[in-house]
Structures are given as structure tokens and as C-alpha cells.
Amino acid sequence: MNAALQPIPSQPLHGPMSAESTGVLLRLPPDLHLTDDQFFEFCQINRELRIERTAQGGLLIMAPAGGDTSAKNAEITIQLGLWAKRDGTGQTFDSSGGFLLPNGAVLAPDASWVSHDRLAALTAEERTKFLPLCPDFVVELRSPTDSLSALQDMMREYMDNGARLGWLIDPLGDQVFVYRPGAPAERLEEPDGVSADPVLPGFRLELDEIL
User: What pLDDT, on the 0 to 100 scale, is given for residue 12?
Assistant: First the structure.
């Protein structure tokens, strides 16, 4: 079995890649297909890396994020997590949480939220692995050398697979793109915050430490 290992210096195939990490896209031959369980096990024995899977079966392997990106990601997750604790209707996930989308991709948004009702429908075993669903709400944060168009494609992938709301936060352009199913993306220029109503009632992300 031969697998082609191709360096990806700055632009991901389907998802984010920060300036602080060098990624490679591992393309597998057509007759070599990892099952969902095999892919999960592969990720567990390589826990020092962030590994995602494209809908076509390619493996995107990235090193951990650098300090600036990590701090901004943490701020997003903290604000979302505090709201979720007060609201009580769902669970927040950080950037290490993988989701198995209906199209077969396994992606790890920078931050996400899933309703308790949907999580309750999963078995105990399913909850220990990549969750077999698309989050209700996803956030992606653009890093300095991320391709904006690639991130926009990824946000549309989330919408196509069942997300109800998505934010692409772009500190480089001082802008936020808001995604909803069946609607064009809305661009907010230099916002001081962004509201998730009505999908996440009452949640507003303050952006002074992010943009």
C-alpha cells in the first residue's frame, strides 16, 4: 500500500490551518479506506497532532496552534461555555472535539455547541468517539495565513451538513461572516460583538479581545 504525503504550506483542502502549524495532506489509495473506528484509533495514537478527514477520505494532519491563535480560541470557548452553563439546553465543545459529519468528513471546529436533545439520542459508545453529527452552531477563527476562501468553503460544508448557525471570525479583515442554512453569508465589518439569536438565545460574543 502506497500513500502520497503532500506538504500543504498555507492552504488547507477543506478546513483551517494556522500560520503556527505546518500541515500535510495524506492521500490514501482508493482501495485503502479507514473505517470510522479505525480513523478514531489512528487519531488516539497520534494525540499530539490535530487530524481531520475530508469527505473524500484524505487526512489533514496539523501541529498544535501557536499562542495568539490559541488565546483567541480560548476566549471564544470561554464566552460560549459561560453562556451554555446559564442557558442549560446544550453542550459546548472546544477545538479538540471532532465531529463525524453526514458526508463522511471529520472536522474539529474552533468552538461549537450541540443541544442536549441531540446528544441524548447518541449511545454511550458514540459519545466516547467523534460525535456522529454536525454541531448546531460552529465557530471558526481565521489565522494569519489561512485561505479565506477555503474557510468559507468549510463553513458552507457545515451548513450543508446540518449546522443551524456558523461564524467565521476574520481578525485579519476585522470582520465576521455569519452563515445560516439556505441563505447567503452576512458580512459584519468591524463589529464589537455578534449575536447568536435565535439559535442560541441571549448569546452575544464580545470581540474586543478577538478582532
Answer: 38
